[in-house]
Amino acid sequence: MKTRRQFHKLMAVTAAGLAAPAILGSKVFAQDKPIRVGASVSLTGPLASTKNGQIGYELWRDDVNAAGGLLGRKVELVIYDDQSSAANVPAIYSKLVDVDACDVLFSPYGANLSAPVMPFIKQRDLFMIGMFGLAGNDVAKHDKFFHSGPWGPNSGRDWARGFFDLAKAQGVKKIAIINADLEFSKNAAKGGADVAKEYGMEVVFNQSYPPNTSDFSSMIRNINAGDPEAIFIASYPADSTAIIRGVKEIGISDKVKLFGGAMIGPQYGALLGSLGPELNGLVNSHTFVPEPTMQTPAIKSFFDRYTPIAVKQGVDPLGFYIPPFYYVAGQLAAAAITGSKSVDPAKMAAFLHANAVDTIVGKIAFTEIGDWKERRVLMVQLRGIKGNDLEQFRNPGHQVILDPPSLKTGELAAPYNKARAS
Amino acid sequence: MRKNSLVFLAGIVIVLALGFLMPWLLRNPFYFFAGYVVLQYVTIATGWNILGGYAGYINFGAAGFFGAGVYLSAFLFTSFGLPLPLCILAAAIVGAILGVLMGYLTLRIQGVYFAIATLGLVVVLETIVHNISGLGGASGMAVYGPRPPAWSPGPSQYNFTVMVVIAVVSVALARWVEISWIGRGLRAVRASEDAAECSGVPTLRLKLVACALSGAVLAAAGAPYPFYTSFVEPVTAFSLIIGLNAIAMPLIGGTRTWVGPVIGALLLASVQQIATVTISSELNILFVGAVLIAFVAFAPGGISDLFGRKKGRARL
Amino acid sequence: MLSIDILLNAIVTGILLGSVYASLALGLGITFGILHIPNIAHPTLVVAGAFFVYTLTQWGLDPIVAALIGLVPFYLLGVVLYAFYSAVFERKGGANVLQSLTLFFGLSLVIEILLSLGFGSELKSVSVSYIGSSLKLGVLTVPYRLLIPALLAPVTIAAVWFYLSRTNSGTAIRAVAHEERALSIAGLNPASVKRHAFGIATATAVIAGAALIMVGPIEPFAGRYQIGRVFAIVVLAGMGSIPGSLVIAIIIGIAEALVSSYLNPSWSPGVAFAILLLGLALRPQGLFGAAR
Amino acid sequence: MTEAVLSLKGVEKRFGSFRALGPVDLDVGAGERLGIIGPNGSGKTTLINCITGVYRPDSGSVFFEGRDISHLQAHKRARMGIARSFQIPRPFIGMTVFENLLVPLDYCHVEGSRHERARAVLASVGLSGRSSDPSEKLTQLELRKLELARALVGNPKVLIADEAMAGLSEEEIDEVLAILLALNRSGVAVIMIEHIMHAVMRFSERVVCFETGRLIAAGTSSEIAENPLVQKVYFGE
């Protein structure tokens, strides 16, 4: 019995040795045991463009520690690279929990990387903030899981409903849907098709394409042949560029009123900069834009600090889409800890279920499975873009909020061809 | 030879016993998560080496076989509730069939073409999975594994034990191939295909056997994976890193004997496990790439060759 | 009416894409097809070329001009690569396939990571005046984004082919694979001929890179998607048949365009390999090569 | 001569439009010593490849002990008793000399202990001392001997020695010839393909000469040496 315990201890010491670089990076000799927050971030691999979220985590940690920590304890981040591969996720989270003894967990980015961790946290009954995983908890239904992202309830189907609301208001009857053959896009397209059906629209074209497609001319011709009035596109950055260029080259019918929907890419500085005016007229989803209805001193201060760090690290200098919500994840955890005065998962979860939390993106209240009670996915129309200067996107008026109505800052400019030319 | 076999057998028994006992001795589940991955790579490297090392035919498509095992087992479990051991067996059979198919298509020509064709296998299988909605397509498929049996304390420990068994069986299979007439024939093929054929070695049939065994082991390595991640999706199931490691590990360890891939996998997979969870950077992958180049360039015999292998002389 | 419209456009798009694929495969046609060095790092070198072009276009250069500037450094890079390769293997009486494949595999990994360390993992694209507009010919709309890179390919291929078949040092390259001994009798150093050939092959990567980044945005790992295609092209063309590779590349391009127009684009990644496997099964020596 | 162990009837092999061999008719008697000569590219190697099964003839048949083996694969023919050595030695590198001999023994049926058989053959070619050395460490002469040992360890009925003496010194040639003669005395037919004229002439009971894929002359050593066709082939006009 004794030797077994010694062996166990030995293994734990070895593991701590392995983990040393990560821990030494922070302040390991604090008098009080720090509160540990564990996360995996895709620093490398195909999802590496989401790594600017880490700046959000770090800004939050610095803010909290500058204010004296949580419950009098310092906050320490333990972050590992999942290399964008779901295969690495189980071992990483087991290490975060079993070796690093983290009190709070942040999920990896998106549904595919988060899926492997869901059964684990459910089985072990752990507290986790989900990062951008669409409908991430709809299967596991874990009651200690909370989304930092604004997808809202029933998100698998509804998160892009704003696009279809706009289409409905325009009297659109025929719609075309295309999507990249990847998890997020595929779910978005499937949800979109359901909503279109619900609104009595005819889906005249519905096709998926492989992730590395670079030429969309034939697909655009096929879409034109279907004569739609709106085109819902769920794409990833590379294809977003290719599709927008393809439309410019092949041309599109004047009947098309709305174009866009769920394109990933036009939220990021890289694409905004490279495509510039070619993006005019696009109606696309977003999570945050610097429009008057969303601008607050808190978020402004966040971006004032984010930008210099991002520039230094060579990541997206705008950072509108992901980083604020990584900061929000920290704020949610902080609220749960201070609100429940503990790091006990059940108490933290109970607090978040019972109380709405103030964050830099507004007040958030949660459903039983940790979705935002109210969907707050934005549909913005890109307008008046001139040249490829990124700074213009920090000003209002270029990413006009059309939906939800509570945040609206402008009316849809339609048809697409006209809005494009403006 | 007798003595070696007895030592080997004793080793197997010890490793198996550890596989079943460790979960009760060691409380921290992390070691089973990490250990699972290491053992998975031991199996993959061993399977790859049966064809790549003994016969000298490079398979870039290890991920294709692995992914086929992953998806088959996920499908059989979620649709028919087949128990895990049967899923593994089914994966091994399908892997063997796939191997023979690949071999039959390309092995009659030069080895390079085989290598290139295996690159394609991954793409083709991945494309097929993408387009079958029953397998979840690109969105993937959640697999909630069965409760572990009473003799195992938890799911991660159970997966670990299962992987121990698969790895041990694979290594034993590889060793048997190596010391039997099959292994001698394959090494003859590797040295000179014509000379082997003219010495009475049925080269094509032998290569097909190697393809089948290698494919079976690679696919079996993938079979428990859905239960490890609770989720399968094509990008990770057919991940390039699997193909990379399948080649890098035997090459680093040494391709001539069964020991090489085991050493290479233990070493590289452990380093990768430690590296992923500690220093976190592109530099990790850079490191693997550089190590690979260094070994190919300066120590083509791998680690097992560096430590002067006197045993390699004739077993009389 | 409409479907003929789509068919015609699909075929034209396929031809253009195929032509771009041909320029990606050109360097491999020399290294693998002629020298029999299975350089699977070639697609990654193409991506490196694309990043080179990208960097120069940031200073306002046209991508094609940038590619021409890149020829020299990439030639030298190829010479260095081959020097390393031969220092490692050739002195041991030639590399076995396994070792050289693995070497280039590791090399491509290293290049990818260096690119992503240097440029970040975000997509990079070039903005040039002619990108984004199309040439309209009746029912055909041909994007310049495809047309210009597609015209680049036959020109490069013709230049390389002319060099290989009409000049002395080109003939030496073609001879070196078969008649190494004869070559050294003729007073040429086979090692330096091969080094030169590898340099040329690598230099074509920068042209292919310019083509690639004009067609669409690029990230450091983009080479992986092309490995299958370029090998399919080189092998099916019959090792070393450079004009043949253009034909095969166009066949693959058209097949992919037709599959994505009429079946579903999600099947198109499998097209090149399906063609390759079929080709290997039916006519292993390639469609244009002689039996070896 | 009455009992042909190997016989070729109208064997022909083309590569595309180029006819590399034939049509050829040739009988090899049991226990015969046959020499095959001819300039480079005269079809000798193609002939061997047709006999051993590396190539399938386009027309005609190959008979072994009265059985048509034209459609059998090379390894099946090897197991029946057609063995060959290669012009450029192809040892099974990565294996010891001894293991090299075990390969054919694994696949060909040999009476008695395989290990004893291998040791005996190594002794008969004078390689006993190198039995446990890696085959890549052998000298050129030793490689030739290994090549022969590996060919004859499986108890063949016909041995085809493809330029087994090229590049060897006079003493070394004598050594190899002695091995082949000893083998022949045990009843194995030996087909020797060779450019070293005096060796072929000394060794063979019968010599045939090939030119552009055709058999142009046959006879005893002295007959062949005086044959005007052969002289024309070798010395021009």
Highest CATH level, the class of the domain at 4-88 and 157-235 in chain D? Alpha Beta
CATH architecture type of the largest domain in chain A: 3-Layer(aba) Sandwich
**Which series of helices and strands of chain D comes N to C?**
EEEHEEHEHHHEHEHEEHH
State which percent range the strand residues of chain A make up.
Answer: 15-25%
Radius of gyration of chain D: 17 Å
CATH superfamily of the largest domain in chain A: Response regulator
Low-confidence segments of chain D? none
What composes the largest sheet of chain A? 7 strands, mixed
Defining traits:
heterotetramer; A: 422 residues; alpha/beta; Rossmann fold; 2 domains; 7-stranded mixed beta sheet; 5-stranded parallel beta sheet; 18% strand; globular; disordered N terminus; D: 237 residues; 6-stranded mixed beta sheet; 4-stranded antiparallel beta sheet; 9 helices; 10 strands; 38% helix; 27% strand
Structure described in brief:
Chain B is mainly α and 316 residues long. Chain B has 15 helices and 2 strands.
How is this structure best described in words?
- In chain A, 41% of the residues lie in helices and 18% in strands.
- Chain A has 422 residues and is α/β, with parallel strands linked by helices.
- In chain A, strand 1, helix 2 and strand 2 (75-81) form a beta-alpha-beta unit.
- The longest helix of chain A is centred in the N-terminal third of the chain and has 23 residues, at 2-24.
- Helices cover 72% and strands 3% of the residues of chain C.
- Chain C has 11 helices and 2 strands, in the order ααααββααααααα.
- Chain C has helices at residues 2-34, 42-57, 63-88, 97-119, 144-166, 168-176, 180-185, 190-215, 224-236, 242-263, 269-282; strands at 134-137, 140-143.
- In chain C, strand 1 and strand 2 (140-143) form a beta hairpin.
- In chain C, helix 5 crosses helix 6 (168-176).
- The longest helix of chain D is centred in the last third of the chain and has 16 residues, at 170-185.
- Chain D has a domain at 4-88 and 157-235: P-loop containing nucleotide triphosphate hydrolases (Rossmann fold), CATH 3.40.50.
- In chain D, a hairpin with a 2-residue loop joins strand 9 (206-211) and strand 10 (214-219).
- Chain D contains 9 helices and 10 strands.
- In chain D, helix 3 packs parallel to helix 5 and helix 4 (114-125) packs across helix 5.
- Chains in contact: A-B, A-C, B-C, B-D.
List the helices and strands and how they pair.
The complex is a heterotetramer of chains A (422), B (316), C (292) and D (237).
Chain B: H1 2-25, H2 30-52, H3 62-80, H4 84-106, H5 111-130, E1 141-142, H6 155-179, H7 181-191, H8 193-198, H9 203-222, H10 225-229, E2 231-232, H11 234-237, H12 240-253, H13 259-277, H14 282-298, H15 303-306
Antiparallel strand pairs in B: 1-2
Helix pairs in contact in B: 1-6, 2-6, 2-9, 2-12, 2-13, 3-4, 3-5, 3-9, 3-12, 4-5, 4-9, 6-7, 6-9, 7-9, 12-13
Chain C: H1 2-34, H2 42-57, H3 63-88, H4 97-119, E1 134-137, E2 140-143, H5 144-166, H6 168-176, H7 180-185, H8 190-215, H9 224-236, H10 242-263, H11 269-282
Antiparallel strand pairs in C: 1-2
Helix pairs in contact in C: 1-5, 1-8, 1-9, 1-10, 2-3, 2-4, 2-8, 3-8, 5-6, 5-8, 6-8, 9-10, 9-11, 10-11
Chain D: E1 4-15, E2 18-29, E3 33-37, H1 44-52, E4 59-64, E5 67-68, H2 74-80, E6 82-85, H3 97-107, H4 114-125, H5 140-152, E7 158-162, H6 170-185, E8 189-193, H7 197-203, E9 206-211, E10 214-219, H8 221-226, H9 228-235
Parallel strand pairs in D: 3-8, 3-9, 6-7, 7-8
Antiparallel strand pairs in D: 1-2, 1-4, 4-5, 9-10
Helix pairs in contact in D: 3-4, 3-5, 4-5
